[in-house]
Design brief:
The complex is a heterodimer of chains A (about 110) and B (about 120). By secondary structure, chain A is mainly β. Chain A is globular. Chain B starts with a strand and ends with a strand. Classes of the chains: A mainly beta (about 110), B mainly beta (about 120). Chains A and B meet through strand 6 and strand 11 of A and strand 5, strand 9 and strand 10 of B.
Chain lengths: ~110, ~120
């Protein structure tokens, strides 16, 4: 079946540091890949997505590239801010109903 | 952007009672809604896929008689936890797929505590 393996947290960084959160997946076919963010007390929000190999999703300074050869979709940001503190979920979409399969989530804390 | 609401946000009930959680898409129509369960410090686990006007499709291991799902309109799906027990205590999250943009939007979740 499908699965998503995500870098375990928590991750603590200083403001303006470089962020990488690793994500690899196992799936049949050609899934779409997503990063969702969950801020404290809020629901999940779509951060970025990529629908085919070599696509790069980007939003709010975050980027992730769909790498089919390594089955990866690592999240990066060049300079994090305190406001980026949240839980980040990697996910893939597949199946006839296009269900999402989530990774375990990574808690990011950015210190001023 | 599109908004999905859940009600209640938090509920505490006694063991053996039933609890209904509502999921509404506020400004869009959703033919498909999803129900997830999230354990502390763990990922979201898909429980079922809810299609408007038809029976929900449950994931393996999810008891359909315990977790009743009704998707009676294009903007409302409900999850009823029947005869709740302490092990049903969890964070329940719904999402709705917006037809035009084909994007899945998530509700803020409902914290269920069964005493």
């Amino acid at each position: 079946g499908n699965s998503v393996t995500q870098m375990e947290g928590p991750v603590t960084l200083s403001e303006e540091a470089f962020l990488t959160i690793n994500c690899t997946y196992t799936a049949t076919g050609y899934p779409s890949l997503f990063w969702y963010v969950q801020y404290p007390g809020e629901g999940l929000q779509l951060l970025l997505k990529a629908t085919k190999a070599d696509d790069k999703g980007s939003n709010k300074g975050f980027e992730a590239t769909y790498r089919k050869e390594t089955t990866s979709f690592h999240l990066e940001k060049g300079s994090v801010q305190v406001s980026d503190s949240a839980v980040y979920f990697c996910a893939l979409e597949s199946g006839s109903a296009r269900q999402l399969t989530f990774g375990s989530g990574t808690q990011l804390t950015v210190l001023p | 952007g599109a908004v999905v609401s859940q009600h209640p946000s938090r509920v505490i009930c006694k063991s053996g009672t039933s609890v209904k959680i509502e999921c509404r898409s506020l400004d869009f129509q959703a033919t498909t809604m999803f129900w997830y369960r999230q354990f502390p410090k763990q990922s979201l686990m898909l429980m079922a896929t809810s299609n408007e006007g038809s029976k929900a499709t449950y994931e393996q291991g999810v008891e359909k008689d315990k977790f009743l799902i009704n998707h009676a309109s294009l903007t409302l799906s409900t999850l009823t936890v029947t005869s709740a027990h302490p092990e049903d205590s969890s964070f329940y999250i719904c999402s709705a797929r917006e037809t035009v943009t084909d994007t899945q939007y998530f509700g803020p979740g409902t914290r269920l505590t069964v005493l």
